[in-house]
Amino acid sequence: MPAFLDTLRDIVGLPHCLTADADMASYLTDWRGRYTGRAQAVVLPADTQQVAAVMRACAAANCPVVPQGGNTGLCGGATPLGDGAAIVINLSRLRQIRHVDAANNAITVEAGVPLALVQAAAEEVDRLFPLSLASEGSCEVGGVISTNAGGVQVLRYGNTRELVLGLEVVLPSGEIWNGLRALRKDNTGYDLKQLFIGAEGTLGIVTAATLKLFPRPRSAVTAWLAVADPAAAVGLLARLRGVAGDRVTAFELISRPSLDLVLQHIPGARAPLEGVHPWYVLVELTDTQADADLAGLLEAELELAIGDGAVLDGAIAATGTQATALWSLRENISEAQKREGVSIKHDISVPVSAIPEFIARAGAALQACYPGIRIVAFGHAGDGNLHYNLSRPSHDENAAFIARTEEVGRIVHDLVHALNGSISAEHGIGQLKRALMPQYKSAIELDLMRGIKALFDPQGLMNPGKVL
Questions:
Q1: Comparing C-alpha atoms, which of 92, 90, 85, 76 is closest to residue 30?
Q2: Residue 193 has pLDDT above 70, yes or no
Q3: Helix 230-244 vs helix 355-369: angle between axes, to the nearest 10 degrees?
Q4: I want to staple 350 with a disulfide (CB 3.0 to 4.6 A). Which of 125, 188, 421, 425 is the partner?
Q5: pLDDT exceeds 80 at position 462
Q6: How many beta carbons lie within 10 A of that of residue 269, not counting itself?
Q7: Residue 161's closest CA among 178, 146, 171?
Q8: How far apart are CA 399 and CA 172, in angstroms?
């Protein structure tokens, strides 16, 4: 379609319409290297008007579109299929911070702004944007919204869905919906923005968002604690929230195999505690009061917890540098796994109270079927989201194990379903879990989703082969 590609070049400029294989390569493979697709072109528009013009051209040519941000997704949602029919619309050039309204605790930013820059812009006006991910230096606002990202502070502030006040979206027709309202209350019918949050670009292209800001914490305490098992961790969460309330900002559960991989593969990583324990918790408390004695509160409660055996050992960070080092252990688990090799990954959620049962039952079932497998379990225990990853310790045996991904996944996902959980907590569906949707979503849910998709995208152009 040379005429169609000429149209795209006219819209965005020749340097920003990539068609050579070498130029497109980095946009056609996902972060994990699991999915590689093909595309007619990768287009990088500069603003919302250019995105709309590109979308109108694609609608006229009946050309599928794959929206893409920082390309840090973990389910192949921003990677085109292998048929080469689509164009990729990468939003990374949309990098304006349009407006910061400190009095209203709101910030309006474009889709290509990296998450870390949103955090920095909030800090400049003495505010906090609380969404925090290991990939925050490279993931972008549009992708974060499209996948309804979670992160480590969902326990206190909620996931992305709860942090969005308004959206600007280019629809499949090329029309622009301006829903950038910075309102906490707007009871005028359907809340349309919620349809695009977590839709993975299947309904439209998010080009800008108005996000919530919060008072900036002025005191914090971080601790690394050893516990005997997940039940002890869940009990500790309850008792800490009982004495500290919403000041418990993050509560991460980390298995010993997870820590071992970080110590093995990440230079400079050091174990915070002497001895080897089966499970660890990384907990953070914050307060907006600079003189809040969070360390004293935590130390007092941990003294009681150690006394009654709920906590086996612990270390409280005495400086910001020490706190950063503790968080680095948690945030580098995924990178350490990547360096170790391929694993079968699950991003699941269950009720917080069901975490111990899930871990016990899943571990027993998997070890019975695949003796000697390595289970790397970690995640956001405060909101019930676990990353549950499986591999063989021997590289020679691992390839054969990975080939059994479907049957391994069925064991994990069937148990999650039985516990009223979700097969995708924060990573999305993308290509990876699309085939699982009919197994774990009811027929009426899928029919409603297909009806919404047909209404917004009657030509079926938006991110084909993803979610539905």
A1: 76
A2: yes
A3: 160
A4: 421
A5: yes
A6: 16
A7: 146
A8: 41
Q: b or e along 206-224 (b: 16 or more beta carbons within 10 Å of the residue's beta carbon)?
A: bbbbbbbbbeebebbbbbb
Using an 8 Å Cβ cutoff, are 240 and 155 in contact? no
Cβ-in-10-Å burial (0-12, 13-18, 19+) of 14 comes to exposed
State the alpha helices, DSSP H only, in 370-427.
Answer: 395-402, 405-418
- Residue 311's nearest CA partner among 438, 393, 224, 435 is 224
Q: How far apart (Å, rounded) are the C-alpha atoms in residues 347 and 451? A: 27
Q: Length of the chain in residues, anyone?
A: 468
Parallel, antiparallel or unpaired: strands 219-227 and 279-287: antiparallel
Q: Where are the beta strands (DSSP E) in 38-86?
A: 41-43, 65-68
Q: What separation in angstroms does the CA of 151 have from each of 199, 383, 426?
A: 18, 10, 8
Does pTM surpass 0.90?
yes
Asked if residue 80 lies in contact with residue 28, where contact means CB atoms within 8 angstroms, the answer is yes
Question: What single-letter amino acid sits at 454?
Answer: A
pLDDT digits (tens, 9 = 90+) for 293-307: 999 999 999 999 999
- Placement of tokens 């290297």 in the chain: 33
Within 8 A by CB and 6+ apart from 238, the residues are: none
Question: DSSP 3-state assignment of 295?
Answer: helix
The amino acid that residue 103 corresponds to is A
**What is the C-alpha to C-alpha distance for residues 221 and 156, in angstroms, rounded to an integer?**
15
Q: Using one digit for the tens of pLDDT, what is the confidence trace for 235-252?
A: 999 999 999 999 999 999
User: Beta-carbon neighbour count of residue 380 at 10 Å?
Assistant: 24
Identity at 5, one-letter amino acid code = L
Q: State the DSSP code for 344.
A: B
CA–CA separation, 181 and 179 (whole Å): 6
Cα 199 off chain centre by: 13
Residue 134 CA, distance from chain mean position: 9
Contact 172, 456 (CB under 8 A): yes
184 CB contacts (<8 Å, ≥6 apart)?
A: 165
Residues whose CB is less than 8 angstroms from the CB of residue 194 and which lie 6 or more positions away in sequence, other chains included: 161
